[in-house]
Specification:
Layout lengths: L27 E4 L3 E4 L2 E2 L8 H10 L5 H14 L4 H7 L8 H16 L4 H24 L13 H8 L7 H14 L8 H11 L4 H12 L7 H16 L5 H13 L17 H13 L4 H18 L12 H10 L8 H23 L25
Antiparallel strand pairs: 1-2, 2-3
Length: 390
């Protein structure tokens, strides 16, 4: 690969390092026009794969043969069940606050009871155990009682759906939605906030559990993983405001008014993409197939058209198209999981796969096995007298 040199100017500073290359990602990449790829395969082509197949793809960087997938899946099953001590301590966490705080704490606790202080082993162990950890946190926070006993033999997401005590759940619909949501959120390149933070923490040689807990703290914010929760609430708000018989024109007028009032319009735009997120396109197809008459599905489809039309009128908006958050919560709600407070945990459950594998690369494989050095960007001094007063 040819060397590319960059001149750092003042315009590069205080921009979140956006677009500034700092390393390699071996698991996935995001193309502005084509979307997300896992190990060279468009994620939109993976919707019929089993989660274990996709995890194998990300972990090994190649499609697995049937016997390889079977062996890998069996290994995950053997690692999957958490210690009773860990589950006991998760059930003693306070229920106050956003459930992501409990999820982050649970991952730290998992490091105490399950950690091996070995990045590769801890990567596989955490990938295997994170469904039970997430289920325990959700059940506890929601007051749904202890999780059902883990049955890894059911399958990766089948077991997760089994362990959740979701009231009046249709297990088939729930499992189908969880599988698709899970696969679409495993990874998203190396520079998204949660992945970068997790790798930065690991660069100081913190273990896998502490690094992933930090990554999940990064994911918890409304500019990142919590966006799917906020998007669903936004669509629900439009539905309450305009009613189930709303027209595209009424939605368009509502968006214009919100923009005029300097209110946020959720579910549109992306840091890299300049087209509709292919993950969103796939999800729109799925909800149209299974839940075409659901009121939220109808509103989401109206918003998809009206929102893009209005946002395209602003030349400063580089990506006026829906992202995955615009519709992922709609799928979960329509399938029988109408609990947006837990959507970021579902995001974290999935993203743990990609981030933990990226950490293994940076700690054990990068630079011919030496690993990357500790993250230490340079900051320039700026006297406080030159800063605008608060």
């Amino acid at each position: 690969m040819s060397e590319v040199l960059f001149e750092v100017t003042k315009d590069n500073l205080e921009t979140g390092m956006r677009g500034y290359p700092v390393g390699y990602c071996t698991t996935s990449t995001v193309d502005p026009q084509k979307g997300l790829f896992y190990s060279g395969i468009p994620v939109s082509e993976l919707d019929h794969w089993q989660p274990e197949q996709v995890i194998y793809l990300l972990y090994h960087g190649k499609k697995g043969e049937p016997e390889e997938i079977a062996k890998f899946s069996d290994d995950l099953r053997k690692r999957a069940v958490c210690s009773p001590e860990l589950i006991k301590h998760i059930q003693q966490l306070p229920r106050r606050g956003h459930p992501m705080k409990l999820f982050n704490a649970a991952i730290l606790l998992a490091g105490c009871f399950e950690g091996k202080n070995h990045y590769r082993e801890d990567c596989l162990n955490l990938i295997a155990k994170i469904p039970e950890i997430a289920a325990a946190v959700i059940n506890h926070h929601a007051g749904w009682g202890p999780s059902k006993s883990s049955k890894p033999e059911l399958g990766y997401m089948e077991n997760f759906a089994h362990m959740l005590n979701v009231p009046k759940a249709n297990q088939e619909e729930l499992t189908r939605a969880f599988k698709l949501f899970n696969i679409l959120h495993y990874d998203h390149g190396g520079g998204n906030l949660s992945a970068f933070v997790g790798k930065a923490i690991a660069s100081g040689l913190e273990d896998m559990y502490g690094s992933i807990a930090g990554a999940m703290c990064a994911l918890a914010g409304p500019r990142h993983g919590k966006a799917n929760q906020d998007c669903l609430l936004f669509v629900k708000g439009l539905l309450e405001e305009l009613g189930e018989n709303a027209t595209e024109g009424q939605v368009e007028d509502a968006i214009r008014q919100k923009l005029k009032n300097n209110e946020l319009v959720f579910g549109f735009g992306h840091a890299v993409l300049r087209v509709e997120d292919p993950r969103a396109t796939l999800l729109y197809q799925v909800i149209a197939r299974y839940y075409p008459q659901h009121p939220l599905v109808k509103m989401a489809n109206l918003l998809r058209k009206a929102g893009t039309k209005v946002l395209k009128e602003n030349p400063k908006i580089s990506d006026p198209y829906p992202n995955v958050d615009a519709v992922s919560g709609i799928l979960l709600t329509a399938s029988g999981f109408p609990y947006p407070d837990y959507y970021t945990i579902l995001f974290g459950l999935a993203r743990t796969v990609g981030i933990s594998r990226q950490i293994v690369y940076e700690r054990e494989e990068a630079r011919d096995g030496k690993g990357t050095p500790i993250v230490r960007p340079k900051y320039l001094f700026k006297p406080q007298k030159d800063v605008m007063p608060i």
